[in-house]
Write a structure and sequence with these properties.
Layout (H helix, E strand, L loop, with lengths): L3 E5 L1 H10 L4 E7 L5 H12 L4 E4 L1 H8 L7 E6 L7 H6 L6 E6 L4 H13 L4 E5 L8 H7 L8 E4 L2 H10 L3 E5 L5 E2 L9 E6 L7 H6 L2 E4 L11 H18 L17
Parallel strand pairs: 2-3, 5-6, 5-10, 6-7, 8-10, 8-11, 9-11
Antiparallel strand pairs: 1-4, 2-4
Helix pairs in contact: 1-2, 1-6, 5-6, 5-9
């Protein structure tokens, strides 16, 4: 029997309808809400042939587990497991750009990071299984559809995964306030993975030590750190900016690194 899960909020639900309406098992909308945004959603769902149920707000509260659903809840068929890293890297036509999140457990932060990753073309988001909130309904809502489009890879051992990426010639760059290199001075045009830690805690020691390079974002104000999703946006944007301006030096899509000059 197919597994189902709940998503809620206009962005998440409409994105799922646009991407693959066949996986929407049921759509629940609030009976007391009749505004242009709701009518537009209902029209989109009707064109897709979806089953729409008008229910009281109290039922939506129970389905979503809280009242922050905007009057829209959908039950969707859980998709196939995300491709593993070998599948993702093997399908790339450009140098790998990966986002690794070390210990981000707040669903709003994870959802925002997924949205940033989608907007800036990260090829996958990698997290440790035991130190991530997972793809909850709140994550899906905040991600505004990105949780359904960005490959999300949960790994058992993050350090081992980073070393495996290094073996493929992918440069591992940690965003860390102690980094010796500032963001504008870093070479980010080749195959690489950005590694960011949880807000307040930063990178774990072993994760930090595994990175090939630590890069810091120059701060001009009085605050000492940025929200992890803001930092993700700055770091991924700089990578994309550099790629648009020059050829990568030495690092390719993610094939094994050359063993020597011969």
């Amino acid at each position: 029997m197919a597994r189902e899960r709940i998503i809620f909020g206009f962005h998440a639900v409409k994105s799922r309808i646009r991407q693959d309406p066949s996986l929407v098992a049921a759509l629940y909308v609030q009976d007391s809400r009749d505004d242009p945004r709701m009518r537009d959603l209902i029209e989109s769902a009707g064109r897709a042939g979806l089953r729409i149920m008008t229910v009281a707000r109290e039922r939506l509260d129970r389905l979503a587990g809280h009242a922050r659903h905007q009057g829209v809840v959908a039950s969707i068929v859980a998709g196939e497991p995300k491709a593993d890293l070998d599948d993702i890297l093997g399908a790339l036509a450009e140098p790998a750009l990966l986002l690794v999140l070390d210990g981000v457990q707040d669903p709003h932060n994870l959802g925002a990071c997924l949205r940033v990753a989608d907007g800036l073309g990260a090829h996958a988001v990698i997290v440790p299984k035991d130190r991530s909130v997972g793809l909850t309904p709140t994550v899906a809502k905040v991600a505004s559809g990105a949780s359904e489009t960005v490959p999300y890879v949960a790994v058992t051992n993050l350090v081992r995964t980073l070393r495996s990426l290094q073996d493929r010639g992918i440069w591992i760059v940690g965003a860390d306030a102690s980094g010796a290199t500032t963001l504008p001075d870093a070479d980010l045009a080749g195959a690489m993975a950005w590694v960011l830690g949880a807000e307040g805690e930063g990178l774990r020691r072993l994760t930090r030590e595994t990175c090939d390079e630590l890069v810091r974002i120059p701060m001009a104000g009085t605050v000492e750190s940025l929200n992890v999703s803001v930092a993700c946006g700055i770091c991924l944007y700089e990578s994309r900016r550099q790629r648009a301006g020059r050829q990568p030096r030495g690092r390719q899509i993610g094939l094994p690194a050359p063993s020597g000059p011969g």
